[in-house]
Amino acid sequence: AQRVTQPEKLLSVFKGAPVELKCNYSYSGSPELFWYVQYSRQRLQLLLRHISRESIKGFTADLNKGETSFHLKKPFAQEEDSAMYYCALSGSNYQLIWGAGTKLIIKP
Amino acid sequence: KAGVTQTPRYLIKTRGQQVTLSCSPISGHRSVSWYQQTPGQGLQFLFEYFSETQRNKGNFPGRFSGRQFSNSRSEMNVSTLELGDSALYLCASSLEGARGLAFFGQGTRLTVV
Predict the structure, then answer these.
(1) Residue B60 contacts A, CB cutoff 8 Å
(2) Alpha-carbon distance B46 to nearest alpha carbon in chain A (angstroms)
(3) What residues in A contact B104, CB-CB < 8 Å?
(4) Mean pLDDT in residue range B23-45
(5) pLDDT at position B98, please?
(6) What percent of chain A has pLDDT over 90?
(7) Nearest-CB residue to A32 (from B3, B99, B102)
(8) Which of A51, A75, B66, B83 is deepest in the core (most CB within 10 A)?
(9) Which residues in B lie closer than 8 A to residue A36 (C-beta atoms)?
(10) Quick one: which H or E segment has residue B104?
(11) What 8-state DSSP symbol labels residue A95?
């Protein structure tokens, strides 16, 4: 079965501290994985995708096929990072499979 | 390029009524997906349309339906509204072949009273 799991509904860290948002997936095949972000009162938007292997707003995510994970990391959190983060997997039938989301709160 | 546009932005309906929401995708995008977003359930996939055909469907009752027009604009309809249908309904469009690269509208906030 195709599934995306984000184990933390809420993650709260202090400004300047490292952030890691966890995402695990279940998929038979070569997955395409994404992180989407939704800032307060803004539309849901793509943050990054694993095939790009790029850093966006200081965030990176590495696909670990052995651990079936795609965790989102940032070494030093900023207050503007506070948002809802969704991990998603592109399935074989073009459908995006979504995790439940993690609300990230950065404390000043 | 204009983004994904959803209308109306806000709606208040009474139980038992029906509602139609509209989504205009980015020009050139032929795939349109609909989602229901609630604080408790997160993002729940409703259905996806491509070239006027429903290509994927989520686990929602038959009261939820949709369609897509030849210009790729899409509508979703909810009949016999229930209180639990109160949610933010999101539409996303994407290019065929750009798997996973979805562009979202700002949503329609539906409140059922």
Answers:
(1) no
(2) 11
(3) 43-45
(4) 92
(5) 67
(6) 74
(7) B99
(8) B66
(9) 102
(10) strand B103-104
(11) P
